[in-house]
Design brief:
By secondary structure, this protein is mainly β. The chain has one domain (6-114): Thiol Ester Dehydrase, Chain A (Roll). The chain has one helix and eight strands, in the order ββββαββββ. It has a six-stranded antiparallel β-sheet. Strand 3 (25-27) and strand 4 (30-31) form a beta hairpin. The radius of gyration is 17 Å and the shape is elongated.
Length: 125
């Protein structure tokens, strides 16, 4: 699964648009629950970019609200709701093109370190 997300710096959200395809169905043309959970975990994990930290999933809760059809485009969006110490509380949503929320995930991510910044070595001659 190749997932590409866009970082919205103004609204501090991560957004991706996807069509799952038949390979990710659980049956009857609907997305597999494990794939839905993976999408929500992934989009929430990307929200950590705004704080320039590395964080891991400590808790993940998924509410499956409506079927996610594998042959229709979905919008996956993540954002932060709260920070307590090293704990980041995040939300991920999967919506259809009509804007209906099909699934919602909430997560607690624990910061394990700062994101490494790229460095450029300068050599003197």
């Amino acid at each position: 699964m190749k997932l590409t997300f866009v970082q919205d710096n103004v609204n501090r959200r991560i957004v991706g648009k996807f069509i799952l395809g038949e390979a990710y169905q659980g049956g009857g043309g609907m997305g597999h629950g494990g794939i839905i959970a993976t999408l929500l975990d992934e989009v929430m994990g990307k929200v950590c970019r705004f704080r320039e930290v590395r964080a891991v999933t400590a808790e993940l809760t998924v509410k499956y609200l409506k079927p996610v059809k594998v042959d229709e485009e979905i919008v996956v969006e993540g954002f932060e709701t709260e920070v307590k110490g090293r704990n980041l509380f995040l939300v991920g949503e999967i919506r259809n093109n009509a804007g209906e929320v099909l699934a919602r995930g909430t997560g607690r991510f624990v910061v394990i370190g700062q994101k490494e910044k790229a460095t450029t070595e300068v050599s003197s001659s």
